[in-house]
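Working notes for the structural subgroup meeting. M.R. asked for a predicted model of this chain before we commit to crystallization trials. I am recording the input and output together here so anyone reviewing the notebook later can reproduce the run.

Input as submitted:
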Amino acid sequence: MPAPHAAPVPTLAEAAQWAPERIVEVVQANVALQRDMEAMRLEFAALKHQLEWFRRQLFGQKSEKRLVSADPAQMHLGELPIPNAQPEAPGKAVAGHTRRALRTDFAQDKDASALFFDETRVPVETITLANPETDGLAADQFEVIGEKVSHRLAQRPGSYVILKYVRPVIKRRDTQTIHCPAAPAGVIEGSRADVSFLVGLLLDKFAWHLPLYRQHQRLFDAGITVSRAWLTQLATQAAALLTPIYKAQLASIRASRVKAMDETPIKAGRAGPGKMKACYFWPVYGELHEICFPFFESRAHSNVEKVLGLKPVEGSVLLSDGYGAYETYASKTGLTHAQCWTHCRREFINAEAAEPELAAKALEFIGALYTVEAKIRDAKLKGEAKREYRLDHARPIVAAFFTWVQERLDAQGLLPSSPLTKALAYAHKRRAALEVFLADPEVPI
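Returned structure, recorded in token form:
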């Protein structure tokens, strides 16, 4: 494609001979060009931000945990590194330094009898070994003075068992009648699946993410021939049996004074050839640590009403993000709408690539709030003591944060579409909801 032809720059003498109409035309063209350049600059910044987001999803760290080095000269913001999954191996003192002891599968002092499992949950099969020294000896020729025990972890080829119920059929001689006891009733009427198999099927699928087709393969390898469709039917029927538990748990959540709610997308159902519909889970969390995952096909505001109802308990607080459905529900029912600092924090994390220094300042403020909450948990403060501690330590941080937010917005040094501008506007608009936790000790941040 050939390059566009650039008009030659006129000299001062040539420009002085232009008619007024020509001058106005050039000025208007220049203004339009600047407007187009500004639009292109905004679009470029937005596309660059999107590219950084996709790059982080593919190659970067998606965790929002902050790894802060322990600097004794800097205030601690409570953002400790992620702890190791296993406890650190014990150290062994060596002259001049401490050397880390090698990790083995033995307990300390090579005690093979030490337990590394829960005896109440793991079946133990005892195998008594014969002493070769007793071969050919009578029982009165030796004395057992003790025993040594060792444990080894083993695995059986299959974890399935067939329960064979034998029901005797009898004929009474006095009445000449035939009697046979009824077969034990199953959880699913007429099914060959025992309740233990149903529980294992659901746990393997939903807790350990083992698809039904893999469970089918495992059954086949264990010598059990069933159809995959049968496993699907069992999973559906067993899940339906949990409906009363789900309803009771959701009723308990509705009765909670402080509730938390969110919405998250999931692909489910067919929207067309080769396409799946975008649906939503609306997880809701109660005061007794109950959690339910209501499913809806849309993100409609009315879904909040369907889950929580229109008659919340007195003094209710709903903790959520900034989606308008929750604010609408709060206005309709009169409950207090609190918003969590995690979503506010996420906005500034998304702005790090565009404005690293300013985003880091905002994250420092929010990190200090999490430090206060960590100290509250360590001190096990509750009720009024927790509220007073928040007012004394968290309220000054919150006030300083929103003062800084207002200063940055007043400076007008950022583009309206800048990720940091959006983060500042997000926090500024939701200040009242973000400050609810200061007055209510039961509301988390």
